[in-house]
Specification:
Blueprint (H helix, E strand, L loop, with lengths): L1 H10 L2 H20 L7 E2 H6 L5 H4 L7 H22 L1 H26 L10 E2 L3 H14 L4 E4 L3 E4 L3 H12 L5 H15 L9 H9 L1 H6 L11 H4 L6 H34 L29 H15 L4
Antiparallel strand pairs: 1-2, 3-4
Helix pairs in contact: 2-5, 2-6, 5-6, 5-7, 6-7, 6-9, 7-8, 7-9, 8-9, 10-13
Amino acid sequence: MATRLQEFFGSVPPCTVFYTVLCIAVYVVQLLFGGVGACAISAYAVIQQYEFYRIVTSAFTHLGLMHIVFNLLSFNSINRTLERKYGSVFMLYLILLFTVINGILYVLIFYLLSFLYYPLIAVSAAGFSGVIFSLLTVESYVVEADSLSVFGLFSVPRKWYAVVYLILMSVIMPGVSFTGHLCGVISGFLFVSGYLNWLLPMHCLVACERGFVGSLLKRSNAFVFIPELHEVITSSLSFRSMLELAYQGVKTMVVMVVVFAKNVLWFAFNSVFPPVLDEVTPPQPPSEINSDIEARPVALTAEEQRQQRLQALAARGIVN
């Protein structure tokens, strides 16, 4: 039995093995100690209670045995292909990046929806399926086929495969988190479109591949180098250069978090304290007469003045 497990894990790329073991280990801890609610993600927990760790922990938390089995089977099928294409260290980082982006998108979507219906801020989710949909979207763009089969029933253009799969999963399994899967499709599309390139510190990843992380992963016979770049980047990176590369990677992530927090705080402040606009009275057309202004007395002619004097005398009884 042990030999078969060694053969299995020896044939599976190390990144796939790492996240598979991580999900299983977290699930075992859940069975022993519980605490699914303490790890699931919701906009209320992240924004109101500042529990930012849920952005990561929710991806590796599962709600039941069938949930984790189905997710890991799908993950192993998809990630093996991508890991052989992009490399083990690269996929190790990319999956973590997808986890963070999906969590931020989920929180942002439900935080905005809570302004329409406040209880939505407490809607929670957990599971690795958001990341799986990110990987599924990437895989649909990198395969050479023009169309992909959906459950062996019909074929769709490969660029629409993830969207069709998302809709069918929501219909077949209405209890799953549509929003969590949608966030995965969005982040996967951002990656294949090149919008996440500024978050991919390739030189730092190659340095990690040649360093301690790579030395651990290379113990697997199925380890895959990052293609092309590992041939270009020389192995003579000094310790100072590695620190500089690591600093740039951390700086990029900090800037992303600060910008996100700034936008959330600005939106929340303007929602609680909306700006007060001074009422401006529109100018009236020149042809209109303002009733608040008294009319000026008009000069009378001599005849009109004489008639007024006669009327005044008649009123006193002087003139008949």
